[in-house]
Amino acid sequence: MRSTDKTTEAARVMTICNACRYCEGHCAVFQAMELRLEFNSDTLDYLANLCHNCGACYHNCQYAPPHEFQLNVPSAMAELRQENYGVYAWPGFMGKLFANNGLWVSLLSVVVITLFFGATAILTGADFFAVHQNAFYGVISHNVLASVFGVVGGFVLVALVGSIVKFWRTMNLPSPLRLDYPRVMQGIKDALSLKYLDGGNGQGCSYPSETPSMARRWFHQMTFWGFMLCFAATSTATILHYGFDLPAPYGYVSLPKLFGILGGIGLIVGPAGLLVLKAKADAAPKGKTNKGMDISFLVLLFLTSLTGLCLMLVRDTQYVGITLSLHLGVVMTLFLSMPYGKFIHGFYRLIALIVFAVEKNDHKQLVGVCQDKKTA
Amino acid sequence: MKTGFDHYDVLVAGGGQAGLIAAIVAAEKGARVCLLEGAPRTHRGGNTRHTRNLRPMHIGPLSVLSGTYDEAEYWDDLMRVTKGKTNEALARMTLRNSTEAVAWLEERGVQFQPPLGGTLHLGRTNAFFMGGGKQLLNALYRHAEKLGVEVHYDAMVSKVEIDAGEFKSLQVGDHTISAKAFVAAAGGFEANIEWLKEAWGDIAENFLIRGTPYNRGDLLRLLLDAGARQIGEPNQCHAVAIDGRAPKFDGGICTRVDCVSLGIVVNKNAERFYDEGEDFWPKRYAIWGRLVADQPDQVAHVIIDQKARGAFMPPVFPPVVADTIGELAEKIGLDPATLEKTVADYNAAVQPGQFDHTELDGVHTNGLAVNKTNWARTLDHPPYSAYSLRPGITFTYLGVEVSEKAQMQMADGTQSPNIFAAGEIMAGNVLGQGYLAGIGMTIGNVFGRIAGSEAADYALNR
Question: At residue B194, what are phi and psi to the nearest 5 degrees?
Fold first, then answer.
């Protein structure tokens, strides 16, 4: 078990909350807390990832600063999450990237986008600003694109799985084959519906201010489903390309286009909305966390869809080369930052929600049971 | 402090639930309203910040409440705790008007939570605020501001001008504000240790105050000095035994220690002094404040063994733990030999029986000066844990007498035409002694609505 400033503070906070329990109606964190008397680092990592940082328990807390208990649950959980994202990263040494996430992601984007410009400029030579017959495949061939992104995608997948397995094991979940599937479904439902951004009664979370609001839930849904639709667009295009020998470009009434346009709009409005809310948000519930991680992720998502939609509009013009370079650079940066940035939160949150569904059903704790009890 | 105007239709002193509701009702009736909150914004709301529920009468399910809680049952509950120390007309009116409280609050943005975990057994009688009383406060402050109620913080009333029972004006610092009607909703005096000492003597120095440090009773005293008729006695207060390490003020709910009935309680001489198993803890916790106050240095220690661990709500502070009774005594500053003898005598006196904490199991001791009549299990399973206890004052009962229209009564038998009172400052009219979960907020809610409405009607000549 790890013991750091962050776990110590989170344990202190949870001990006070467990003696109060007024917030049990707000979200799963407090209901999971009530199953416990003690809070070790496994338990706290679980609770931290259950916390959606909605802020309700902070604004409604009778012990919030300047009370001498200085209780700020969302801040303690946010700071602990930043720490444990690093702890569960695979390979382990890459966990350091969570510390100055905004900085390295920004630098990476500059490097990657420049590389794409350079590579494209070299590949196309004098034709960089030409109108290309085969749209963007005229700039960079499909096979080059597929192999570059395939290799990066493969690494990202391995790193994500590695991190998820580490977290999964700490959460004491059984192998995927022995899971309690109705509980898994419950966890997935709670994750997909963003249940715990509803404030407890559907009034919404206390974000960006004390006044309950559904804004964050809506913008997050647009971001998530926008991302999923863009993913679906790429996937259907891949299937059409390899399975049906139907290479791009596709017409407007085709699955890749419909998914891409709809998803692209969601992935512009969603991240933009979240960024605006973030700028307005009360700083206290976020604690001393590195906001650069959230911002860089949202900006990458926003730019991915923006450049993607631009690419669609300019694909038959002389700007296709420059737009393509930019788009691919942004997408590549997003890919590379996935295992070591904000993207990872969705997986840990989903796992935590599944664990909560199991614990709630069994009325007993699953995570954080002492090792000696486990072997006994 | 600078107010927008020098004169208002309705001036409210006190920004807890009762005062806020009075201000909102008056503003909704069209009055120009100013609300003075004595605390800074971060501590606004008096003891409402530490509350969690209210207790509405209801026939059939109501919002988050299940079943029926009718007037007869409610009245019986009130009589049981007050032992008749109530004004029946006011009390019955409070019960009848309590039904509307939930919908009234919900319409103004207050969220209630469905019964869950720790609140399940109260799902019929008590409507719980989602997140607690501060959520209610936040919602009502937002609503009041939307209605144009002028809210001032750090605005403690220092002087009131009352002429033959009629309110003229008041002062906050050197700023004078007048109004046609005045609502006094500034709470009790439990945070005023000097005042407590007048009634309790020097032992009050050792009391901990569970609620806001701003309930110093300044307005209550001003009103009494101006001729208001007093209700209740100054030594009447709701006192529970809380963790001795709790903050002097504002410790709230989490400082309670719920394991008295599972162990033994000794004073600083390491001797037991009261039956720890007399009745279920929720029915007894409110006598233990006074019991501890009667002990030397106003301190006691509850001692349990490993068998009791996890069988009660986790306290906020960790227990002092030791492997032997003697070692535990040393750690908590008691005489080891005496405590060992007290525990040995107690253990020897425990009669066999089937322990069951969910019922009055009759497992008791025999032959002790102070016997334990239920849940008496031997203390023999180390490690042993100790929590220190001190009297924790929740609220005071002394207040001003009011009519059914919340009008303040004067000592000379008249009533004030334009002073209305709501909340803890007048709760003693209904709750003369004892306590019923959620009754304080119910009284504040009902009288807040009446006071606001009557004050607005008076001010607007309706």
Answer: -60, -45
Asked if A25's CB is within 8 angstroms of B113's CB, the reply is yes
Give the mean pLDDT of B205-224: 97
Pairwise CB contact (< 8 Å): A62 & B111: no
pTM: 0.95
pLDDT digits over B216-275, tens only?
Answer: 999 999 999 999 999 998 888 899 999 999 999 999 999 999 999 999 999 999 999 999
Q: What is the pLDDT of residue A134?
A: 64
Domain boundaries, chain B: 7-236+397-459, 240-392
CA distances A1 to A4, A33, A78, B440, Å, are: 10, 18, 19, 45
CATH class for the region spanning B7-236+397-459:
alpha beta
Interface test with B, best of A61, A62, A365 (most B CBs within 10 A): A62
Considering only the top CATH level, what class is B240-392? Answer: alpha beta
Query: Which of B135, B153, B313 would best serve as a mutation to test chain A binding (most A beta carbons within 10 A)?
Result: B135
In chain B, what residues touch A23 (CB-CB under 8 Å)? 131-132
Please enumerate residues of A whose Cβ is less than 8 A from a Cβ of B.
Answer: 15-16, 18-26, 31, 34, 37, 56-57, 59-69, 199-201, 203, 210-212
Delimit the domains of chain A by residue range. Answer: 100-361
- Mention every residue, 6+ apart, whose C-beta is less than 8 A from residue B117: A21, A24, A31, A34
Inter-axis angle of helices A215-243 and A255-280, nearest 10: 150
pLDDT higher than threshold 70 for residue B295: yes
Q: What pLDDT is attached to residue A126?
A: 72
Kindly write down the DSSP assignment for every residue of B159-181, as one continuous string. Answer: EEEEETTEEEEEEETTEEEEEEE
| Residue A71, min C-alpha distance to chain B (Å) | 12
Measured at the CA of A210, the angle between CA A206 and CA A211, to 5 degrees, comes to 80
Cβ pair B117:A26 closer than 8 A: no
Looking at residue A135, its pLDDT comes to 62
CB pairs under 8 A between A and B: 96
